[in-house]
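input
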Amino acid sequence: MIDPAFVVGALEVERTDRGGLLPHRIPAAARAQSDDQQLHMVEAQPAGVRLAFRTAARHLELDVLPTKRRYVGAPPRPDGVFDVLVDGQLTHQLTAPDGNVLTVDMMSGARTVEPGGSSSLVVDLAPGEKTVEIWLPHDEQTELLALRADAPLTPAASERPRWVHHGSSISQGSNAAHPTGTWPVVAARLTGLDLVNLGLGGSALLDPFIARTIRDTPAERISLELGINLVNADLMRRRALGPAVHGWLDTIRDRHPDTPVRLITPLFCGIHERTPGPGAPDLAAMAEGRVAFVATGDPQEVARGALTLEVVREVLGEVVEQRRDPHLSCVDGLGLYGAEDAKRLPLPDNLHPDAATHRLIGERFAALGDW
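output
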């Protein structure tokens, strides 16, 4: 059995019927307040979660049971990647070819699961005492079944400041190539922060239980990337957005009165800059075997309160100005990825950045300095 003390970056670790560990990024009490299948799927995808330990071992074996995703009408997705870091340096990248298969029909929402087998990952290491981190796939649910080594393992305690970050699939890492290539991990490694990534694909929707989760999580830094999911879900109107964000910040401040908070406005996304949601799969692209997204809302609805990314940026800026909180700052998402960047590094599916763009966003966020 794996010692849960080795698991870093998860807010809860569930012991499964097989005796394995399933990391969760949202606690059970919060998960119980929503029956949304998308939220339950993505919170169990271990973005930012890693096994971390000190050891003199030369040989490691990790048994895992992934849950792969397949989308009806879309090309197969690549297997999730496990990044192995030794004393902070990336030394191995591994995949688990077997596992359960979750099939999703994006048009109907139907989901089916086909059970599969586990995989064993083998890591050979250089001699000597070292810190080993095994970063789990950022977008593939992974049950940890067993960890074997030819020398003792002890938990690797971190003395770095803890950074709790919440956001959309962009923050979770959609279209990044590997777990330490997502923009929050890039930024955390550059700035020496200990990341807890609460990026939730399709689910950064100002749910009160997420604000309470952030409130209840120890942190020296907090950041919130908000907007794109509110627009592409067509979840609320302008009248509701400002008070909802104020309420979120009030909740977080209940237990983090002086913690620095960065509110990140939406990054550039051409389909939703001036066109409201809901977003939808691009049927023409799917007919060609590609995954892409379109905005289906009516721009004339903006005058009646519909949200676009331009509207969200304006409202978030107003909230920060109104609060006059010396520990709250606003980060312009267009400074992390803007219209000019999109000409050189377009979003492959019109919604999510590619691997190079994740690196760019992470470097730019890190360049903002400490906060």
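quick obs: The chain has two domains: 4-155, 162-367.
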